[in-house]
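Take a record:
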Amino acid sequence: MMKWLVVLAALVAFAECLHKMPLIKGKSARQTLKEKGLWEEYRKTHPYNPAAKFYSSGTESMTNDADLSYYGTISIGTPPQSFSVIFDTGSSNLWVPSVYCNSTACENHNQFNPSQSSTFQWGDQSLSIQYGTGSMTGLLGSDTVEVGGISVANQVFGLSETEASFMTYMQADGILGLAFQSIASDNVVPVFNNMITEGLVPEPIFSVYLSGNSEQGSEVVFGGTDSTHYTGTITWIPLSSATYWQINMDSVTINGQTVACSGGCQAIIDTGTSLIVGPTTDINNLNSWVGASTDQSGDAIVNCQNIASMPDVTFTLNGNAFTVPASAYVSQSSSGCMTGFGQGGTMQLWILGDVFIREYYAVFNAQTQNIGLAKSA
């Protein structure tokens, strides 16, 4: 009996080490712009360019992703100042708006005020992050950053001075990057690296669960996994490059037929992109296979009545098949139905974004440099 009590106590203690960061599924920029009747005009002036953040140009890029909707709250400073951020496995820097920013995008978001934090220190570098449209520029400083109950001391982060106009319509104040230091702007040490080196997590892993339609339950767990969020076993896939969370993809198939990524390609598991994105020719082929037609703003439209009869799409990663049904890759809104397959231009890189991660619980291991995927519960 005593032995079991010891085991139980150990399990309870371990459960307490897991730091869960709840994510809210909020309004996307697309929803906000549609409500204001600005979407059509906006889409013309800000074409969707999700691949922008993966062009390595020395500055870390991002994109006007109008469909991002998962946010978590962190705090910076002493006493803490709160910010909602996108936890982005496709970038590596943390930045938030600051009181030095006079862009429209900063006016309707929380702004960090260094003079109100006793632990803040200025850095000596500036920060510039390119977007698909416009950019964010700012200054670097360091302070205590609290994420999911973990306090990271002396974390270097960006304080924005100017922000691209599309940020005005995003609910999140800023972005917390979870990719590797090798792609961080100014070689800043990312938040998760500091959690590991400061011994703040039991294991060098974090995992992401994105809930479907409901707004509740999505979370990032730092230091482990939450077995209530997946079924079956976790399949581990080695990274092909420890820059982004990048892996080898063998093919994209429908009913055994290769429809995209013929002969293999590279894919990135990216919580900071809402759709599944690929080279334009591949995506056009994939969309026509599932029966979608592309409208003038590049959205792949389908008849909502057809969802039940549309085929599954299988992504084979390192020899393992991950199937995404139509119920997962088609989004329904008041204005109709569209697929979650977006065009990434000429870049031969696939981005497996939220459409994929909602189906597959994702575990990111920074030490062994691999990704675990399991069917979401």
